[in-house]
Amino acid sequence: QVQVVESGGGLVQAGDSLRLSCVGSRRTAITNAMAWFRQAPGKEREFVAQYTWNSGAAVTTDSVQGRFTISGDSAKNTVYLEMTSLRPEDTGVYYCAAGYGGTLTENYRHWGQGTQVTVSS
């Protein structure tokens, strides 16, 4: 079983920055990618960013491009989500997941408990 643990959420003001971290307990053949999703109250969980271990490829969704950066540290099996210029609409629970990759939640088998990010205006 792969365990995924997020950390780094909090309450910030619009325009501030936060860094989220996600540690995976181990890497397997079906956990080549780690991704961040977020879920705002009353909304569907949505893809934010993905990091692929074997290629180092980083992908972010359009709404956060230029503001969020995902990166990975292979030695620590950890991915980071650097969030800058935060907006109130970035508020939500941020989940880290490990799986095949892509933007669909069903591609990820292992999920963390989530970390709350609240951006006040």
Uncertain segments are none
Mean pLDDT: 95
Strand-pairing-aware structural class: mainly beta
- Distance separating the two termini: 40 Å
Strand content: over 45%
Written as H for each helix and E for each strand, in order along the chain, the element string is EEEEEEEEEEE
Give the overall form.
globular
Percent in helix: under 10%
Number of helices in the DSSP assignment:
0
What this model shows, in words?
This protein has 121 residues and is mainly beta. The chain has strands at 4-7, 10-13, 18-24, 33-39, 46-52, 58-60, 68-73, 78-83, 92-99, 108-111, 115-120. Strands 2, 4, 5, 6, 9, 10 and 11 form a seven-stranded mixed β-sheet that branches. A four-stranded antiparallel β-sheet has the order 1-3-8-7, with no helix packed on it. The chain is globular and about 40 Å long. It starts with a strand and ends with a strand. The chain contains no helices and eleven strands. Strand 5 and strand 6 form a beta hairpin. Helix content is 0%, strand content 51%.
